Model the fold of this input.
Amino acid sequence: MRSFQEFNPAVIAVYFFSVTGIAMFASYPPFMAASLFGGIALYLVRNGRKHAKSHFFFLLLFIILAAANPLMSHNGVTVLFIMNDNPITLEALLYGINSAAMIIGVLYWFRSFTQIMTSEKLLYVAGTLSPKLALILSMAIRFVPLFNRQSKRVKDTQTAMGLFRDDNIVDDVRGRMRIFSILVTWGLENGIITADSMAARGYGTGRRSQMKRFRFRRSDAVLLLTTLTLLGITVAATIAGGLTFSFYPAIKYGTPGIFGICGIAAYSLLALLPVIIETEVSIKWRYLRSRI
Amino acid sequence: MRIKAFAAVLVCFFAIIFDLGPVVTVAAGASHTVGEVESLAGGILDYEREKAGADSIQSWIDGALTEGAGLSSEWYIVGLSQSGERKLSSYERALKAYLSSDKVINVTSQEKYALALIAVGSSDSFITDALAKLDDKQGIMSWIYGLHIINNGYNAPGIDADKVADKLLSLQLADGGWALWGNQGDIDVTAMTLQAIAPYYSSNGKVREAVDRALTLLSERQQPDGGYKGFGNDNPESAAQVLTALSALGIDCQTDQRFIKNGGDIISAIASYRLADGSYCHVKDGAGNPTATVQAYYSYVAYIRMKRGQSPLLVLDNRKPPRQEEITTSAVVTTSAVTTTAARTTENIQTSAPEGTVTETVKETVTTSVTSASATVTSKATVVTETVTATETAETSAETSTSKETRASIAGKTSEGSGKGGYKGKAIAVICGAAGVLAIAAFVSGKRNYKNFIAIGAVAAAGIVFVLVTDFQSTDSYYTGEKKYKENAVGTVTMTIRCDTVADRCDHEFIPEDGIILDVTEFDIEEGETVYDILIEAARAYRIQVENRGSSGSAHGMVYIAGINYLYEMDFGDLSGWVYHVNGITPSRGCGEYELSDGDRIEWLYTCELGHDLDEVYEE
Done:
């Protein structure tokens, strides 16, 4: 009984790339819905009410992305209204919603991915393939929390020095821009220092070793097999199951056969796999605790 | 025995009924179907066209009818316009030239030309000016014509539908008819009056009562062959006027028993004057008469329109009345005064009219200058019915402001694009209001730094700029379904949109098999109009999807056409897209920069090889 993040990093990586790969390359609305739902559900199950504010940001992003497409593309037979001699169409709006669902869904998957795949796990997975790529990846991912911490530090310092005024919008925005500028400068400098520091400590002179051991257990094999099976069914159904959907100029979709429905079901299951595992774990955990 | 005899009588009785039934139907109903009436009308057009030596209706319009503008063409133009003919711009220019010479001083004639102008889709100030000249000094014909103009949505200060209708009702004679003089109703004038007041049949009780009396008269005076006598002899013109009037009222003369006599109905009576060459004679076995011919033609058109549920002959499909704001105020005040003046006018007319002999010329002028009127009872001409409702509002509720609004909204609906931009004021007001509320909220919550207010102002200004540069229109108001009417047209150009290069190599459901998206179509141009303007006009008139990129509204016209009719650039390889040719030459400018001149030939073509698969001749 392990929670999702305790599985072997390689299995988790395969899982993430399967689910986001389908979401990114098959622009099929039911898949988008499943991916969006699974991504958000996993994030909520893992984080609960933490980072509640960030969801509003993603909601706003979703709306902007969905609305941008009909303003750019005017293909489609169902005209809603006319803007500057260009028709704004329902098809373009639905296409926008579909791609916004894809982007936001994938973003949510990667939010969970960065939480689960710590740099150590990432180095373990990618280290054998290409140590340099793994290092760059882990450092890139590390930058996000690093910047957050540093920006808070800079802001606190500026406020303490009386340079940061937030009693009006204009000065507030200007102050934030100054902090951003400081951060960028600091980031560049920090990059050089990190590189020097790593070279000084002898990075890359020998084979990488791990601090933590990641074993490949039977449950890992089960999860890997399940992931690959579901992925296989989904891919096969996408290719041969009549899962076609075109938005322009009129919405047209093939009726999925039994095989196609299996594909949709398989992908939905795939997207919900981590949530199922987490729920199972928490139920078992509660059950065990209740017996103490 | 008794029962047997009774049964025998009964059987005989039924036998007679069943035998006679079909015979009677045949006798009374040598009736014409709509298709037959259409072919009768078409026969007249063919006759006139051949007489003018034209090989198509269009060349007849551009030739003989344009030359006859102001002289003889008006009723053919009205009939053609009401039959769906739209390319009347050459005639329109000729008529305007004729009118600008101020030859026409008679108010009735001016009103007739005003109706012709409405028929070609003009909203020239001539129309309102002619209507404004209507006063008590004029005879009954000018009131009839004036009401026709009003029925098309026009108004002049102090002249509205109520006033004119009341005036016409006050002129009704004791026998239920109307006449130019004398005490006996004349068939032509009665029918013409009915045409004008027909739209108010359902809404105005007095009109209904008057119309019913007049219909009784018309039914009584109908001849055994279904036709009518005017000034003593049978003629097709009187019958044609009655047919037009009945059609305006929504009465089908072939089914209404009041107007079917033993010998036939009105249409069969008119058709009996038809000569071998397609023209119509004034008296049986006489020579062809132009007046009889044209009146027969437009009465057929009126009947066809009634059968199709369209508006009456003289409620014109092309009408574009201007917005009217100031009209009703004086109208309501004057309504009461009308009754008193009306009686006096009747006397005037009756005394001043010449007594005694009737000449053929008088007859001719009267009959040529009149036609039918507005919405039938059953007609779907909603605009007119709304006008009627608005008039009622003005009458019943003393609030002139409400009726002004109603009228303004009607005018807005009928005149193209006048509602455009109306939302902008509201949107800006909403933005300003929101900014104000935010500013007050900031002030109340203590964030009183002046920079806060500057920021709110800047955001509001950005919002207002956005509202001003964008132009939102509803689908219905954008896709007008008809070409834009151009007051100052300087010529015509033709445009076609084709995609022959890809027509046979795709299964795209929106690409026509013959590759023709828009066949060669004529468009009027105004000074400085570009290829882009005409393309957008076509898109609006024929509901063709067009996607443009770039700043179409800017001074430089930097606009690129990315797709037409769902066929986009790069749909057929990286080198595919839309290009345009003018007079067979590929211009080296954007379509928003190419200004057109009279007679230009625009082609929009889809290329798959950057233009090399088309016959390209580059601009010098």
